[in-house]
Amino acid sequence: MAGYELEVDFYNSFWLKKTIKQGDTTPSWPGLPWNPTGYPTFAWATPTNPKTGDDNWYIEETKIKGGFNNTTAHIGVRAYTVDENINFDRKINSLIYSGVFNTRTEFNATNVFSISDGIVKDADPVNGSIQKLYTEDTNLLMFQENKVSRILVNKNTIYSGEQGSTEPKGDIPVLGQIVPFLGEYGISENPESFAVFGYRKYFADKNRAAILRLSRDGITEISSYGMRDYFRDYLATISNKWDVVELRYNIDPTNVGVPVSSVDVDSTTCCGLNIGAIISFNTISDTAIITNVVDAGAFCTVSFTPALTFPIAATRISAETYNKDKISAGFDIHNQNYTISMQTSPRYESTDATSYATVAFDDHINGWISFQSYKPLFIDSLKNKFYSFIDSSIYEHYYAGPSADNHGKFYGATTPTSSTVTFVFNPQPAVTKNFNTVAYEGSNGWKVESYTSDFEGFDREWSGGVITGTWDESQDITNSVLSYVEGAYDGAGNTGTAASPNNPPLLRAGFDRKENRYVANLISNSAAQPGEVIFGNAMSGIKGYVATVTVTTDGVTDVGGAKELFSVSSNYVASSY
């Protein structure tokens, strides 16, 4: 028996086997062919391939026969392998920093993470994951789900009862002390709600139903300025759960053999596909990227690039994206407003008015000044310009350039769209009032689309000992008030722009201009209510505690031109019954 050292798949091992000598010195290898892709193959003895005695085996040993103090075989440099299945640790509440980047000397060490230095800064895990970082001068603001803190950069602070705060000498860490702001507030899982202007930072904490401002005086809950109940209810509808949107679609036979860059998908669920998602095809190796998804009601049009030619009708499109609700926000530098859009579904999934609420906050009055009727992907300001990102396009708001006569052409519309403002008259809230007139200061071309009172309840009646009827409510409403041009008419029966002073007298059925104010009487259009003697157009105005008014631009006065509205007022008297 003799032993031989072979190169095998096991480090520091010997392969021991029997041999049959032929002659004096030449060994032979009886039936043990080597399998280079795995373990060696051990064949049983055959008449032409004799084998006797014990089987062969592998050992990993440095001493011959494994005996005490026996001769040692030198194994050389011991080999090590790298475990490719390394377990990783998600440190969602930690920060790590690399080496420096110096633009002046072009020294770049951003890919250097020295394990000899303390390059990790851990925040309190109780406050959740780190969602947002913002650099402010020489400090770093850290927004966790349940806490907002300031991290000192290249400095640390020691507090003493005698001298206040002092900076220590010696080795200063890159990320120093974590100083939390007062208040149990965070940014939840909505870093997209963050916006900044000057020294004021704004963000939403969905988990605490609050919209917040971080300023020199700390954190302030600005949602409590007259809108606490509203934000409490709406933020409760926002979900931070990711939803999977899938597309499975067989190509229309009419699209076979011709380049195709879009398909109509007969499924409204596919309207949630994200722009930028990759589409794959089962019969061709090419892929495409989704560039736009348009919800057409019964189907969605999915556009992609590059255009592809499908060889057979059985070609199937497959795509998958992940969506979640969002709270998109930005600072409107033009009007100095924090604008926040709470969206219960992404824009590319739905643009219905019930799927979002966009609201603006003004620091000058510490109040929420207006709802707005657009649903952006993103909004932000740059160099005194306010932009919104819609689908794959960028739009500038408040444009006053050479083509500023195209007002009302919102987001690619080819024809002007009417602008609408809705507000509430609520003087003396505890007094029932008769609203008789309406007036506004501003440009020519505004009309009152609706003027309605608050709701009044009906009681069900008894008939033969049984309650009859239904629980119901009613409200007073006026006729619409036409604009100054729209409501003009002459003695020849011409109206609007066709009315002419050459056919006197020129009269107004809507707003008239007096002392550069546009005024009109309110004509009731209400149905008769129980106990009413005078109702409908036989009476002036409407009755109620409050009145909701919607004014809009008309379609005849300087179409596409600028329309300004400074103030709207209404004359009222206290109701005598």
Protein described:
By secondary structure, the protein is an all-beta fold. It folds into four domains: 1-87, no CATH class; 91-180, no CATH class; 243-323, Elongation Factor Tu (Ef-tu), domain 3, CATH 2.40.30; 421-574, no CATH class. Helices cover 1% and strands 40% of the residues. The strands form 16 sheets. It has a six-stranded antiparallel sheet with strand order 20-25-22-23-24-21, with no helix packed on it. A four-stranded antiparallel sheet has the order 10-11-12-15, with no helix packed on it. A four-stranded antiparallel sheet has the order 16-17-18-19. A hairpin with a 2-residue loop joins strand 16 and strand 17.
